[in-house]
Amino acid sequence: MDPCNDPVFRTRWDADAMAIQAISDFLDAAAALGGNDIGPQGPDLSNREFIAPLLGGVRGRVRVGEVEWGDPQTTPTGSAATITKPGVDGFNFRGFIHNHPGGSKVPSPAGPDGNGDWAVFEFFRNQVIAAGQNPALLSMYIVTFNSDLGEYEVWAYDYNPEHNNDGGRKVNPEAQPCPL
To answer: Does the predicted TM-score (pTM) go above 0.85?
Structure first.
């Protein structure tokens, strides 16, 4: 079966490809920030968290939204990045991608403030349901750096009500979107 012929599989297939593309977008943002966001090998993602929404577009195509970032992790105000830009809503939201500067590939639990990866996922899932859209289209992506391989990897998670970290899958680094 061609995954591009099924709306749910097509959305996930395209979202995987855009998650891979977002690594470049994150590195471009790190390069523009400069300072400690530039490592010995050039821009890197170990200083702060970057995040971008994955949005539904023309003919079901998924695209990467605007990249945002938190404070550096090395400061007392080091914080997670959040999605704050207008135009992201339950109607067009298909997931989000973010990095973990510390390298963990599993979703972060809720902290004392109640925030965490699953809380963000739950928030947007509720907006998607309220907008009458299919929550099965949503995925959460985490970018990590594999120091053994010297490359970034992307891990995808689908919603699960227990908010456990089982079932993450490594995204194909060669992922390409479905043809239009």
So the answer is: yes
